[in-house]
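Late entry, written up from scratch paper. The run itself happened at the end of the previous shift, but nothing got recorded in the book at the time, so transcribing now.
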Amino acid sequence: MGCAGSSRSKGDETGKKVRKPKPWKHSEPITRAQLVQMRDEFWDTAPHYGGRKEIWDALRAAAEADISLAQTIVDSAGIIVQAADLTVCYDERGAKYELPKYVLSEPTNLTGEN
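Output as recorded:
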């Protein structure tokens, strides 16, 4: 037997539903190409800052999916969502994963130029 507080109950898993991030604005207008480059750089380097690669991969898949699929990915990977917009998450071992808003949604000042 274990302590009742040592693991998540089914009710805890549904406590934080994934939602779209609130609108945000980059410090200066950026193009889609610049946004894609920033995202690629983040995902390429993120695993080097700690945590498990499979969790980073799941977070990337969730960030690039629609909300209902993102929820399924997060639940399946055992990711604990602290911030419903996925900016702060934990894995089951307690490692923290922080995602910048630019990998989760587009800024309000995205320009049409390349």
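The chain has four helices and five strands.
(Scratch paper discarded after transcription.)
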